[in-house]
Amino acid sequence: MEKRAKHFVLVHGACNGAWCWYKVSTLLKSAGHKVTMLDMAASGKHPKQVHELRSLLDYLEPLVEFMASLPPEERVILVGHSIGGLSISDAMERFPEKVSVAVFCADFMPNPDLSLTTLVEEVQDLSLSLSEKLTRTH
Question: What's the domain of life for this entry (predicted)?
Answer without folding.
Answer: Eukaryota
